Amino acid sequence: GIRDVAVTGVQTCALPILALFAATGILATTWNGVFLAEVARIAPKGKVGLATAGSAFITFLAYSFGPFVFATSVSTVGAYGPVYAGVSALGIVAAIALLIAGRMRKP
After folding, report:
1. Alpha carbon 97 to chain centroid distance?
2. E strand or H helix that includes residue 90
3. Of 56, 76, 27, nearest to 86 (Cα)?
4. Is the pTM of this model over 0.70?
5. What does the pLDDT look like over 8-37, one tens digit per residue?
6. To bridge 12 with a disulfide, which of 8, 39, 43, 105 should be the other Cys (CB 3.0-4.6 Å)?
């Protein structure tokens, strides 16, 4: 993102930077469709709308409150490191839960 532009300097050709921005934008916006398609695929019959609406609601709730919670945590703790470690721990716990759930679903 912006850090990459700052690191490359002014002399860099604009085309690679624009390509980087375009790729970042595409990747950042298209995962929602993949996510909702998977939610719809595993939803019980007749509950696709409820499942996708619920998952989208929770996702956008996290978009809305995540930065606030993160900033408040950094302010409370007084450093970024422990907060990033906590966020990483949540990701690891989620990955383990998904692995366990995936194994439980297989016959």
Report:
1. 17
2. helix 80-105
3. 76
4. no
5. 555 567 788 888 888 888 888 888 889 999
6. 8
